[in-house]
Amino acid sequence: MFRDFTYDINVIGNGHEGMLLINPARKVTYGIYQSRIYHLHVPRKLVIGFNPLRKELKLSVSRPPYNDPAMALMHAQTMVVARGSKVGQDAADLKTHCSSCEATTIVSRGPNAAQGRIVRDKENEEFGYYNHAEYFDCEMDIRQGNTIGRALMAFAPYNKYPRTPGSLLSLGIRQIAAYIILYPRVERCGIYTRWSQSQTNPTDEIELSLRVTTEENGSRMFFRGRKVTIKANLQANGKPAPRAYRAYITIDMSPAQLNNKIKVMLARAPVAALGIKPYTICASYGSQYPDFAKEFLSVDMGEVMTVNGEAQIQYGEGTECGQGEGEVKVTFKHQTTQEGYDALKDKWYYKKCMEQKKSPEWKARGGNKLPATEPCYMTMWDATSARHYSWRMDFVKLTDRMKKIISTVRTVVSTGLMPYWDDDFEEATADVNGDVGPYMYLDVTFKNADKNADIRVETSQGVKEYDDYPLKFEWTQRLRNMKMTRTIKRLIDNKIIYPCVATIGSVQTNDNVTYSYDAGSCWTLTSAACGPQPSYAVFTKKVGSRLAVRAYFGGHLVEVSDHGDVSINGQAKSLVDGEEITHSNNDVEIFKLVKWGSTVNVYSFLRVWVATDNVFVQVMPAPSTRGQHCGLCGTFNRNMFDEWMGKDGETMMTSAADMVNEWKWKC
Known about the structure:
Layout: E1 2-23, E2 28-51, E3 56-62, E4 70-84, H1 94-97, E5 104-106, E6 115-124, E7 129-138, H2 144-153, H3 165-182, E8 189-197, E9 203-220, E10 223-238, E11 243-253, E12 259-268, E13 279-288, E14 306-317, E15 326-335, H4 338-344, H5 348-357, H6 374-383, E16 388-397, H7 400-416, H8 425-429, E17 439-447, E18 452-459, E19 462-470, H9 486-493, E20 500-502, E21 506-508, E22 514-516, E23 523-529, E24 537-543, E25 546-553, E26 556-560, E27 566-568, E28 571-573, E29 580-585, E30 588-596, E31 599-604, E32 608-612, E33 617-621, E34 629-630, H10 656-663, E35 664-666
């Protein structure tokens, strides 16, 4: 199935922003305003198709000819005006008091202040394109160092949230685009860029075919392993011959990404007519994280957790990996530290977690198991974050260009560390016959609540150490974690999902409101999807000092007694620690059961995750439940003020006892 689109976009716009000051007595109006003009021209032909059987996407995009390029232009200037009280009327006595003054004057630094600078002027005969970008008629500071620095600052994390690579990239691009479109400057300035085919050896069309295949690679609850294969072919059609490139990527991840293997191969085909030789880049990455803990939400303070890994890149002319002139190998090890555990004990969330652990409603968990509360999740994240990092880079063979890159990077890093350098800088950073050496070993240990780091660098030229190097950013949330994936953390941080946790004495709702209550001895609705098509319901009741749990999934019942005995639709089930049981109906999976230490977990795909050890029950509904949720866990609608909503969806309960009475079911 293919669709083609041919379009020629031409947009010309003019934007104004101004401020006026009117003096009625003198019948004069003063104003200052900015005027901006825009011109966008994009001629294109686009062909797109998808083969659902092969799971293959094909895309063809034309490249504009040299004499009709895609282009964008923006120019802004600020003006001051003096007018009469009526539209179009000159200001009275303006020339009398200032013979050289005009009614409209462009704000400028002077007649010779405007300047221009070519940012890029590149004709690439290999890829067959031409690109030009420049500043013109500009009184702003357009020195290369200033513009590059400001462009890089647009991607800085200080004004962005969440601080993830994706958001830093997307919000940085938006920040640059907003600056160009709104141009919050008084100085006049123009920006122009164009993109087209090259004049020599042009390419007029880019064809891309992309095929992605996936298969499951084991699962444990909602942690699902994946094997992904990506095949891409890119061809640039033009004169005197087409240029062809291909990519082959394989990703192999176990559940919770404990074992990871990634391989990438990028290849360029030879083009004799252009003197283009074959070129290949091969890269691989592998890492091994610690296995699942024996207990859900448990941590051993003082345990050394380690992730080991290795990476390799091979590059150069040739059609196979290893034929090229370059090869670099990297091995790494990241570990938790005792100093990190010790520093954790002074943080507020650790103290609060330990206080909760000793409370009557949580102390029955015992051992190294933590309460399922926000301070304890924060404690868990901090305790399992690596603070000792080591990398060894072996430069098996390097091209001259790569040697220069490595030498430059090393010099820049060394410059930043100069205040902590005891020896002569020039002597220590000088190359030996232009060689970077056969290896580099880097060791970094975070300390002092992640405010400082000890750094050790070893090369064939010697060893350098920098103690107590001050860190400018907040690093705790950026450290590599040994037990918890960032994906779930990001979903929770952005309130896409959020757990509800109930004990015999309190409920933390899905909208993060915590209230005290006395759990009833009757089955009480704790969490349910209450929309037009209910998908699950979780009930709890107090038995002695523990909770019994019932979970319904479309007529199927899982019950966990107060002693942890499990039954499915009334039939007892014996669970083996770490082994999943899948309950299906007519070959359709309804839910999975797995015992994780003393905690029974029930997971229904894209519906809900329920975890309980009878001290607590944690319910994590799918995002599709948002706004259609009911029970003790609240409304799950991002409104913290309607958590005590009654069954009718209108009446608000006035106490926790009323909530229990409202949602109780069977006694």
